[in-house]
Task: structure prediction
Amino acid sequence: MKTSRRLKKRTVCVTINDIVLPGYTNIYNTLFGGKLMEMVDKAAAICATRYCHKSVVTASVEAVDFHIPIKAGYFVELFAKVIYVGTSSMMIRVHVRGEEPLSGKSEHCCTAFVNMVAIDRTGKAVSVPELVVETDEEKKDMEEALKIRQSTLARKKKERN
Ligand SMILES: CC(C)(COP(=O)(O)OP(=O)(O)OC[C@H]1O[C@@H](n2cnc3c(N)ncnc32)[C@H](O)[C@@H]1OP(=O)(O)O)[C@@H](O)C(=O)NCCC(=O)NCCS
Result:
């Protein structure tokens, strides 16, 4: 993989809004987990692509926590942020909030960490710009990402053995 003279870049954030339509729900009339995962994956893919301006694929999704169900008719807000960048991989944290449309009251409902990898036309991993980490918040994000990355790599190693 070509890694010489990589560009450096600030993080990228993406916010996406959607609404829980009847076709999105489970038997409890709340947002189906698989549908939420699709929204999370899309938000992460847009965020990673905007960061590196290359084609990206989802390599893995780590540490997804569904805290609170999101009811039918509620708005769903997904806030995606690049929090770690390796050579070709990018970790995107996606925070999800559910909002009651009439009151505007919203709650944090889910967090997911998505590993995206930039690829070339042949599907081979290619390098992306280095992430600039300067502020306290960026440093905290990076620490959080590194812990998750460690467990991803350990899991991958275990799978190989
Ligand atoms: C993701 C993919 C390109 C990685 O290919 P690979 O041959 O393992 O590539 P490499 O070993 O060179 O690793 C490339 C990077 O991906 C990371 N990576 C690979 N598998 C990973 C995983 N499961 N989770 C997190 N990161 C992963 C590596 O850590 C490495 O990161 P770095 O460059 O920042 O150090 C390949 O596995 C793939 O195409 N998977 C299918 C993706 C897909 O179809 N997704 C669903 C639709 S988008």
Observations:
- The chain has one domain: 8-160.
